[in-house]
Design brief:
This protein has two domains: 2-220 and 414-464, Ribonuclease Z/Hydroxyacylglutathione hydrolase-like (Metallo-beta-lactamase, Chain A, 4-Layer Sandwich), CATH 3.60.15; 228-407, Rossmann fold, CATH 3.40.50. Helix content is 30%, strand content 21%. The protein is built from 13 helices and 22 strands.
């Protein structure tokens, strides 16, 4: 059996690992590269022939795990895309939204370059279109958590709860190669933390020969100086007192819903002033509706609220923004408010327009509630850049910049160790990916010092396991 690492190797985004066993060819995830230095890789060949892949096993619907599937299908993939039912529903929304953004950004880039009389370094065409995204959907095949699915006569896969976002999974694969004992490979996907609102806790495993594991926070915890709800309340109260707006770059899946959950609770408890809250992301609006379709995927607290007819993601003052004109109207509003808009790392979408409008206003606050990959616009702002380029303009960062780590959907260092510690028999090899290179190497060194056999692959490397 062979493992091929095609993405998220010594970097955070672009998750994609190939597994080859006998005649079977499986791809675990097929994600977008979102770090600026790696954006060109989205346009490059995959490193394999798409028509040779039998199945894609999708861990969850974040774009850095599924965002290149339309290109995979367009270039010849004809197999099945297996995922939980919620992930299937969310991926359709995610890919359509991504395609819309690709089309809108390409059109805006063409307009800007014509206005400036120049040709940009990147293509003025979308990476893929809405039609490309829609052509993926017949390939989707929903599966139930924990149910065995046969990939061929020797290989079975089960999707286990990952606790990261709605429908997220760990891939538990067992295969028998001729004349050899069965071999179990676990792909962690993105591991969620324990005890989060809305999401169930992640699954753990007692045995596997090979583990492919994320390491996003392998060298640190989600250290916040106080409770998440009080930190959020302080940001909103202080910004409103200055007459400013709070803009939150938020991932449309789980992060936006968790922020809404806390905002609703703060408003009901009268811990923040009554002010408009705009969910300015058609995708996040649709995702929020999907949450109510899958109550069994939620934690007990959320299920209890739903059972008594209370939606934990709705409250007075919340407005769902769908159209571009509605979004522009939010920018014209001259009063304190909260704006949640995608994308979560501020790499694309409507949040860039809100940032362009607010970033030079000291009265306003840019609040980050999710991981910001290196060289993304969000990371540049968070790291203290005095000036950033947004929509073709250099703008000074005068707004207050704040961060709340407790919203993260990723396990921190201690939770990653907790997940690994559940193995009663240590795997032969643990492959670490999906993290900044320095973070992954530090986590690998710690595990190696405790006796684990750890490999940190590079993109393009192949291993016999």
């Amino acid at each position: 059996m062979k493992l091929h690492f095609f993405g998220a190797a010594r970097q955070v985004t672009g998750s994609s690992v190939g597994l080859e066993s006998g005649d079977l060819r499986v791809l675990v995830d097929c994600g977008l590269f979102q770090e600026r230095p790696a954006l060109d890789r989205n346009w490059e060949p995959f490193g394999f022939e798409p028509e040779t892949v039998d199945s894609v096993l999708m861990t969850h619907a974040h774009l850095d795990h599924c965002g290149r599937i339309p290109r995979l299908v367009a270039q010849g993939f004809g197999g099945t895309i297996l995922a939980t039912a919620a992930t299937t529903d969310l991926a359709k929304i995610s890919l359509l939204d991504s395609a819309h953004i690709q089309e809108e950004d390409a059109a805006f880039k063409r307009w800007r370059h014509r206005r400036e009389g120049r040709q940009g370094p990147h293509p003025e065409i979308p990476l893929y279109t809405v039609s490309d995204a829609e052509r993926c959907f017949p390939h989707f095949e929903p599966v139930a958590y924990d149910a065995p699915v046969s990939l061929d006569r020797r290989t079975t896969v089960r999707f286990r709860e990952a606790g990261h976002i709605l429908g997220s999974s760990m891939i538990d694969l067992e295969t028998r190669e001729d004349g050899r004992p069965p071999k179990r490979v676990v792909f962690s996907g993105d591991i969620g933390p324990w005890g989060k609102p809305l999401m169930r806790d992640p699954s753990v495993f007692e045995a596997a020969e090979v583990v492919v594991m994320e390491s996003t926070y392998g060298d640190r915890e989600h250290a916040d100086p106080g409770p998440v709800d009080e930190m959020l309340a302080e940001v909103i109260r202080s910004t409103a007192a200055r007459g400013g707006k709070v803009v939150i770059p938020a991932f449309a899946m789980e992060r936006a819903q968790e922020v809404l959950y806390y905002l609703g609770r703060l408003l009901r408890d009268v811990r923040i002033p009554e002010l408009p809250v705009f969910l300015d992301s058609p995708m996040a609006v649709e995702v929020t509706r999907i949450f109510s379709r899958y109550p069994s995927y939620l934690d007990e607290e959320a299920r209890a609220l739903l059972r008594v007819g209370k939606n934990p993601l709705e409250f007075p003052g919340l407005r769902h923004i769908r159209t571009v004109e509605e979004s522009k109207a939010v920018n014209r509003l001259e009063r304190p408010c909260v704006i949640l808009a995608g994308s979560g790392m501020a790499t694309a979408g409507r949040v860039k327009h809100h940032l362009a409008n607010l970033i030079e206003r000291p009265s306003s606050t840019i609040l980050f509630v999710g991981y910001q990959a290196p060289q993304t616009l969000g990371r540049l702002i968070l790291d203290g850049a005095a000036e950033v380029r947004i929509l073709g303009r250099m703008l000074k960062v005068r707004a207050r910049v704040a961060r709340i780590n407790g919203f993260s959907g990723h396990a921190g260092r201690s939770d990653l160790l907790r997940w690994l510690g559940a193995f009663r028999r240590r795997p032969t090899t643990v492959f670490l990916g999906h993290g900044e290179e320095s973070t992954t190497l530090a986590f690998a060194a710690e595990l190696g010092g405790e006796g684990w056999s750890v490999v940190v692959p590079r993109s393009g490397e192949v291993f016999d396991v």
